[in-house]
## 1
Amino acid sequence: MAKPTPLSGFPEFLPAQRHVELEVVATLARTFELHGFANVETRAVEPLDQLLRKGDTSKEVYVLRRLHEESGKDAGIGLHFDLTVPFARYVLENAGKLEFPFRRYQIQKVWRGERPQEGRFREFTQADIDIVGRDDLPFHHDVEVARVMLEALSRLAFLPGFRLQVNNRKLIQGFYAGLGISAEGIDEVMRLVDKLDKLDPAKVRALLLDEAGVSEEQADKCLALATIRTTDDSFVDEVRALGVKDDLLDEGLDELATLVRACAPLATASVRIVADLSIARGLDYYTGTVFETRLDGFESLGSICSGGRYDALASDGRTTYPGVGISLGVSRVLVPLVQRGILTSDRSVPSVVLVALTNEDARAAADATATALRARDIPCEVAPTAAKFGKQIRHAERRGIPYVWFSSAAEDGTITHEVKDIRSGNQVAADPATWQPPHQDLRPQVVTLSTDSTTEKEIL
Amino acid sequence: MAKPTPLSGFPEFLPAQRHVELEVVATLARTFELHGFANVETRAVEPLDQLLRKGDTSKEVYVLRRLHEESGKDAGIGLHFDLTVPFARYVLENAGKLEFPFRRYQIQKVWRGERPQEGRFREFTQADIDIVGRDDLPFHHDVEVARVMLEALSRLAFLPGFRLQVNNRKLIQGFYAGLGISAEGIDEVMRLVDKLDKLDPAKVRALLLDEAGVSEEQADKCLALATIRTTDDSFVDEVRALGVKDDLLDEGLDELATLVRACAPLATASVRIVADLSIARGLDYYTGTVFETRLDGFESLGSICSGGRYDALASDGRTTYPGVGISLGVSRVLVPLVQRGILTSDRSVPSVVLVALTNEDARAAADATATALRARDIPCEVAPTAAKFGKQIRHAERRGIPYVWFSSAAEDGTITHEVKDIRSGNQVAADPATWQPPHQDLRPQVVTLSTDSTTEKEIL
């Protein structure tokens, strides 16, 4: 077979790179579990009618067909393109066996049948948390998911900083209604204002007048609302100053102010929260809180962590399940950082120690040394061949294994053990039953390489 | 939307069941890492020509098609049906960036485009370990993968016992050659002897005479070889007693004896190793050691953990990569045990503590209590509403949360904290900054329910 080449849109990692992803996933899972979120894994496929529900046929779905299906027909199932559709289906299917409010996290691959092109993933990993209620779900859960994700992001200290941008659909819709814009006009205005991240305000203003048919004063107020950004609840006064009155607006202002006040104590230099009244989440079916997140220095990636409140995450016609959730694009963040060489790990194997071999007859003794180390949770491996010690040390070096273990038997049968830190060259006597490496050597460390210098900074 | 129904062949777990799977995966991963195996995750898809290489078009593959592909053509890619094909491709694609011998583990979903029918999975999880060399790979790595998997299985104490059955293709092929069976006849004899687990020996003997064209004496010796089963290296004498001489047979006997002797010390009452000279692994491309594994009491599942040695796991025409590996069918073991109610967990959420609420105004104080507990790695959640305490306790009970935390503020503002173990009813004063639950309460526990009684046995 000729050397295979990568498939566009299906990123894969080398082992040292994959370790970064494992660390991210473990940190996310641990944080979510500390907050009582249970893990769920759904199957990779859903029936096509589920994937295209709400009549949205614009989704880029991969449809499955059995290779040996004689009729040539597809199997009526496709790969899921997000984790919300399968979760909503899982909630309905298992509603009688779940306890509500139900908190779950889900970290899985999703697929999109995109045309192959630069920067578009066709397979990627997402990490979702959602809280779903039966019939109702108190607003404090909106605060909860925001706080949990902020905590998770701040534990990922080796990533660039984040800016969590929050808004509230009730606030926007109430404001537009208070301006006298019709119910039908509100969606259109929201869609046009959402273009502010791509078009300049004068152009959006023109579109508002032409396409949404609002007045100049209405357009100016809509644009004024969308420019409000505050890191505390002072946005309330700024909105009030625009002189619009509406009950739904009041409700939205109150919810957003509560959310921002509750999240502000979690902000750090690298993880910030901002009430950004331009955020609307386009065509998605959110009904209250909305979230987007920008990665510092990688704003061109768009939002890497988004979500919000659905009044009806799922419904079987009799019972409605409201939900609030947020989804982190794990691949969306990691793949660019790993591919540019900014993130990797300091070794390609879990091993802390390579147990060297004097000769092949010493393999059983070397295995015994390794077993003693593993009994105390020290990952290690035995040299594959009894090559010259210099070659065995290079074997460790190439993998980033920090220690090499040497044993020698005296004529009376007593065995002497020494362990060498090959980074410093220090070699000391050691006992396999008690020797302990420094804590930070026990696992591979995530290493960040800045793009504009060759200095390495070890974090984690 | 009407209540969705499960898709045949795509098993899913409820949260308490999923916890069992998470424990299994974490235990496997930890064991593999202790032995220096690095994690790799490959994409879910491979080009169809890779999936069907070696001309084997019998595989049940799911082919992908973009929903919006106007030509109606499929995308030329399909979901992988095992983890060996993608790993072989990954090794070739990244050979220049990997260090050999390369140890990797991979725990992922695989898919097979089976017709829907009882007991056939169309999506399932496998856990593979392999060691791959460049040009050569010493035999001691065969011993290594067997020992690592035995150790991993014995750490899964909540599963039924296992029997790892080992054999060696060189032993079989050398024995047949020594009997005077032709090179072409050997594969046919191996294929027929492999039917001994389904057909009775007299029937297989008749097939050997009729289809493989061997003599009565040859057939009897082939059957005699296949009946040999020993838990130590005494199989060598039993084979020698059959009076067949051949160099390849000697090599096979020597390898298998070495493997059995090295694994025997790891055997326990529930995890056993046996040299079983009937094991051949059918049509697979193994060239030396072969493995199969039976689960005690679930022999009808067939082999739940199989593998062996390939002289050419991968090859690019210039360089050959020999490998040895073993693959555990995680879903194959867990799904029947979980679906029959034999395995579950004692709670459906990670939370150790439910922090109760006196009234909604006390939510910030309850959040502070929860934050203090989480800072010491104690998973917890705050009650969703300030219902009556009886209702809040039932909220915990239904999820299996063992502790409920109560706080009350005196008139002078001092807060009193108490924590109740709702299993025993014991309630004691506690400080959120120092209270620690017993270690076994920190994580959900896997619970086994025997099929023929209602007694629960907590393990792990």
Note: The first strand of chain B starts at residue 38 and ends at 39.
## 2
Amino acid sequence: MSIEANARRIVLAARPQGKPKPGDFRMEEFPMPTPGPGQVLLRVRYLSLDPYMRGRMDDRKSYAKPTQIGEVMTGRTVAEVVESNDPGYAVGDTVSSQTGWCTHAISDAKGLRKIDPNAAPVTTALGVLGMPGLTAYSGLFTIGQPKAGDTVVVAAASGPVGSLVGQLAKIVGARAIGIAGGPDKCAFVKDGLGFDEALDHREADLPERLKAACPKGIDVYFENVGGAIWQAVLPLLNDFARVPVCGLIASYNGAVGSDSLAPTMREVLARRLTLRGFINADFADQMPKFQREVTAWIAEGRVRYREDIVVGLDKAPEAFIGMLEGRNFGKLLVKVDTGKV
Amino acid sequence: MSIEANARRIVLAARPQGKPKPGDFRMEEFPMPTPGPGQVLLRVRYLSLDPYMRGRMDDRKSYAKPTQIGEVMTGRTVAEVVESNDPGYAVGDTVSSQTGWCTHAISDAKGLRKIDPNAAPVTTALGVLGMPGLTAYSGLFTIGQPKAGDTVVVAAASGPVGSLVGQLAKIVGARAIGIAGGPDKCAFVKDGLGFDEALDHREADLPERLKAACPKGIDVYFENVGGAIWQAVLPLLNDFARVPVCGLIASYNGAVGSDSLAPTMREVLARRLTLRGFINADFADQMPKFQREVTAWIAEGRVRYREDIVVGLDKAPEAFIGMLEGRNFGKLLVKVDTGKV
């Protein structure tokens, strides 16, 4: 077991004004930490990059407190135990942890979750079998409640949440309509994942094309995006439609904001819509059932997933900035430990 | 049994531009109709005036189809059977019916509901024990789900829906905060109905006063109004707050609309709010339980109600126009049969 002399981490250097830029992040070296009693030293193998992180960069109260200037960027990782003072963890164990954007971290073992590297690729613990997967599963089934024959629409459909939402909708017998950016992603959503239709939001006339793809209206709209896509969806929602509100990536960089509230509220009333916000932590108790079911569906070939892996912690800021513009294709991960597989 | 020679009705004369004006309505005489086989002739005693009627005057698809120009205005009434060709109804029976704004109507007995005039004043069938009451009961309990210790806020709190929402909240042990227009209504809400606080939305600084009245935030906001009151409520909503969306009277006359959608959606996500629209017909199956419980609470003095009765069908347009500006005080009814009690 070789341990580098110095560890590295990426901290928040400045609060972004609109789109984050590379200078809003700063790489730091720090002395390799030593675990105290009951602690373990983790070497990070993969870092998950997710849209919610953009919210933490702003100084605004939300469901989690903002990252402070100079603090390590928030993030969930897959890591290996390289030193252990906790009898529950052995050197070599693979775990999922909330270490943030770094190469090494100390953990007191709270919040660690052991991963069996023989059961599935370890990266799935950050994607289809991890928090993004649970987000799709719990939001769709608990809030969206699709029934056979329903029409389910999801945007960011080639991403880790959207791709699972559509496939789960198909499993319960609903029609799945995906919205994604560009022909390659749309081809993947329709042909690779088996959605009934995939619509490119970069092409003109999305409202008309969405209407044509949903001749019986929309029963569940899984909201990842907001903005123009919500405006296209709103007139098509059926009575009693359910809208799990999972993300609003269109507005995370602060653009948007000109849409008026009144038409949305009018439809909430007239169509008796349910809009319900959630984060995956609200449904942490569903994790075991989710993992059991989705693992089986992957084994049966009924659920597929796609990963977009960037190599090197130093590439994380650029990859993250690109993700906010839809430049990733699949679950975005950073392979942090470039030395070994 | 005296039957007038001619019957009268009020029809939609023109679609309102913004606020309705008297010329948007027209009184018509028509020959006294004769019931056919299986039908009854009804003499209307009381007409209920409700905010939802404003929506029917616009040519816009909603949960119900618009009233056409020249058609009788929609409305629920308490009526007396004056001729009957249906063995299920005797002359003299009191019923609740959807006759619209008129003195007489033919009914094929579908949609009639018998009322026992000895059990409660017949007007309560249009208010606290009728559709407005069911609206409050089902929206609050099924969607709002207040628990003991929760803070429940409702606007239009002296009206038939809001007044019951707050009293039901008190019955389950929640704190009830009412918002109403003017000192008389606020005094009634607090002292007459027993809300914990009543705030006058016509006074300055509603957001600050609402915040002071809700030191633990808001768990349930029963939405009757929209507009500036929603903007005051939004920052105070707690995590997992529930918002039954029952009405949006602030925007029914078409004003408003400058509020941006983005802040509402951001809070839906960050605070994991539930916004759910409904109309009382969605919960028609709760009617028996609702009537049983609320009747008992009225008898025990735990639920009070207030009626605002205008005499004469010809006064209905003016009373309706005034209601949209908050000029009624209590459940607004028109006593249609001016001849007898």
Note: Chain A has a mean pLDDT of 93.
